[in-house]
Amino acid sequence: MVEMRRAIAAAMTRANRDIPHYYLSHEIDLQAAQDRLATLNIERTPDRRLLMGALLIRATVRALAKVPELNGRHEGDAYVPSGLIHCGLAVAIRGGGLIAPAILDAADKDPDTLMEAMRDIVARTRAGRLRNSELTRGTITVSSLGETGVDALFGVIYPPQVALVGFGAPRLKPMVHGGAVTPRLAP
Q: Residue 5 pLDDT > 80, yes or no?
């Protein structure tokens, strides 16, 4: 485990130095998503409930259809676009560190299937049972520190990927909705 953390740290240090990074921030209205989750989860047992993370991954994957240039890898000196979306999920490793195994073919998954994949990949990450393809085939990574109360996340791109999407903690904020200022959930 120590050697893996060293390798990850070296790769991320190289990425931060060698990959051009620029940061954008945008607030989004998550109230409708939160309301939908509440409705969907009302009859579900805790182990079957959807979390906001599954919807955020689904939204990221769908956005890549509009901006496919962010779905690919940098190999050698060239950008190689990917027709498939293998969405990396930043997962904290017990004992410290992060790793971003990919949910393969994420565009083909509905929110329930994404939630199952997230639970599975987190459990297998922490047990040290990831597949090589999950570690090497990611095309974009989603990271969230929302559960820790972080307002925004500006991460380091996981090489050889070319983009990372970070989400902060959703909280009630005054927003204009339907022509009036109302409290809405936004990260």
A: no
Query: In the numeric block, which tokens belong to residue 127?
Result: 């047990």
Q: What is the DSSP string of 80-141?
A: EE-SS--EEE-EEPTTS-EE--EETTGGG--HHHHHHHHHHHHHHHHHT---HHHHH--SEE
pTM over 0.85: yes
Q: Is pLDDT above 90 for 117?
A: yes
All domains in the chain, ordered by first residue: 2-186 (3.30.559.10)
Q: For residue 10, give the H/E element and its range.
A: helix 2-18
Within 10 A of 36 (CB to CB), how many other CB atoms are there?
A: 14
